[in-house]
Amino acid sequence: MFNQRKNRSIAAILAFSGTWKISGLHKFYLGQPLWGILYVLLSWTPIPRVASAIEGVWYLAQDEEAFDRNFNLGKSAVKSFKQTGQQVSSVAEALRELDSLRQDGLISEYEFEQKRRQLLDEIS
């Protein structure tokens, strides 16, 4: 649970649910169990309910990048998808160039296969 990607909307819903039910569920979801326990222990006071409402608004006010920086170790889903796509594109281009060298007779079939395997291992 701690290393799974956190969703901003779910965090906000859990925070707002803490304004009328058990406070602190959003803290457990976001990987902050000590704060979650503190919210539960103080649930007989209005403090965690007010804090939950404020945090719910804060989560919604943040853009995805800011939320990812704060709660997903800076790992954006869009950014990692783009990086993977770029890596696959560069490997595909390298394979095309390698095949061209093989067809021109500049490298042997064995050398082609070795380099191909090496390139494919880089993306997996």
Overall morphology: rod-shaped
Uncertain runs: none
Order of helices and strands: HHHHHHH
What is the averaged pLDDT score? 85
Q: Tell how many strands the DSSP assignment holds.
A: 0
Query: What is the radius of gyration?
Result: 24 Å
Amino-to-carboxy terminus distance: 24 Å
Q: What's the number of helices?
A: 7
Main sheet attributes: strand count, strand direction, barrel closure: none
Q: Percentage of helical residues?
A: over 70%
Compose a concise summary of this entry:
By secondary structure, the chain is mostly helical.
Structural overview:
This protein has 124 residues and is mostly helical. 72% of the residues lie in helices and 0% in strands. It contains 7 helices and no strands. Helix 1 packs antiparallel against helix 4 and helix 6 packs antiparallel against helix 7. The chain is rod-shaped, with a radius of gyration of 24 Å. It starts with 7 loop residues before the first helix and ends with a helix.
Secondary structure topology:
Blueprint: H1 8-17, H2 25-29, H3 33-41, H4 47-61, H5 64-71, H6 77-103, H7 109-123
Features:
124 residues; 7 helices; 72% helix; rod-shaped
